[in-house]
Write a structure and sequence with these properties.
4 strands; about 30% helix; globular
Length: about 80
């Protein structure tokens, strides 16, 4: 299991923490009990690499997920 680190954003955000691996990102949402797994299989390398950059920057991750990925995740609450 990857260690989650706090998502540092200056704005009100739905993301509370994340963890990055070579081919995945785990995203913990404030209102969900378990982190969501996004990987190179689902939703794909382009999305995951962009999400990694946004997570490290601490800006835009929630918006990106809502606008581009939505429910296209590999594993998460209720899946």
């Amino acid at each position: 299991m990857s260690v989650l680190q706090p998502y540092k954003s200056d704005h009100n955000t739905g993301v509370s923490a994340f963890a990055i691996g070579d081919d995945f990102i785990l995203v913990k949402f404030k209102d969900k009990p378990e982190p969501y797994l996004y990987n190179y299989d689902k939703p794909g390398k382009q999305h995951v690499d962009r999400m990694k950059r946004l997570a490290l920057k601490g800006k835009g991750l929630t918006t990106y997920i809502n606008q581009n990925v939505r429910t296209n995740y590999s594993r998460g609450s209720g899946k």
